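FORM 7B: Structural annotation worksheet

SECTION A. Query
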Amino acid sequence: MKSLDPLKMILNEQVVCCRALLDLLQRERLCLLEVDAYTIENLSTEKDTIVMKLRLLEEERQRLAADWTGGDATLKGLSAVTGDTSLLGIRSKLISLVQAIEEMNSFNRLLIERSLDYMKSNALFFSEDAGDGSRAGKGMRVSVET
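SECTION B. Predicted structure
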């Protein structure tokens, strides 16, 4: 009989990567609040690396699970076929982590969108014409009082 150990190793690695991604998103949130563009850029590179690793792990997980089930590659289905309930515990951890990642990602996206809107409105304000067709510049009068 085949062993589930290789599959469990992949699943545990997915849990580790999801925790790392969640931690990274929390650090990203702090950097967004502090407007630390340099660190945000570095975190983005780290995030891409973790996401790529998660994709590879998921492909391997599906392949290994399909070997056991013949098609139903879900952890619930695999647990039913093998009778190994520890897979359901790992499934619960992964679901919880993915939900937390989605929430943190949505929060960070909102922060970024608000920052972009703020920057766009400020850029629009400063790019308005001075009223006489010329651009307002340093030391130039923007309006004439009556």
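SECTION C. Observations
The CA atoms of residues 30 and 36 lie 9 Å apart. The domain at 5-127 is CATH 1.20.58 (Methane Monooxygenase Hydroxylase; Chain G, domain 1).

SECTION D. Sign-off
Analyst initials: ____
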